[in-house]
Design brief:
By secondary structure, the protein is mainly alpha-helical. It has 5 helices and 2 strands. The chain folds into 2 domains: 43 residues, Arc Repressor Mutant, subunit A (Orthogonal Bundle); 73 residues.
Length: 118
């Protein structure tokens, strides 16, 4: 499909979509075919491509992000411990999310979304 076709079918703005496709291409997940009949294709079959690979290719930050800031009111030590707790928790959740996504193929996503349309 061309980026314009993909943009129309996904509802993602074409500029943002081309950026995502570029990231996927750099990570070897899609192939770009130039020219009049060009477009993008998956580099592997949907049964071989896992959601975790796609997520890691396009997501620049982790799903759980905590902005750790210092406080000059004498509570920096406590806030640092609380932030540390949440950072460890978020790290653990991130690992669990990515492990779950590694068990889901693009074919699974396509089957699920096709069934929802029916």
């Amino acid at each position: 499909m061309s980026s314009e076709e993909l943009s129309r079918s996904t509802g993602i703005h074409s500029v943002r979509l081309r950026r995502i496709l570029s990231q996927l291409g750099r990570n070897g997940l899609v192939l770009s075919n130039r020219g009049l009949a060009g477009g993008f294709t998956l580099a592997r079959s949907p049964e071989e491509l896992h959601l975790q690979e796609v997520y890691c290719a396009v997501e620049t930050r982790k799903a759980f992000h905590l902005d750790v800031t210092r406080n000059d009111q004498g509570t920096a030590a406590l806030s640092g411990r609380v932030n540390g707790f949440f950072l460890r928790l978020f790290e653990q959740l991130q690992v669990e999310i990515e492990e779950s996504m590694s068990n889901i193929t693009i074919a699974d996503v396509l089957r699920s979304t096709t069934q929802q349309e029916e």
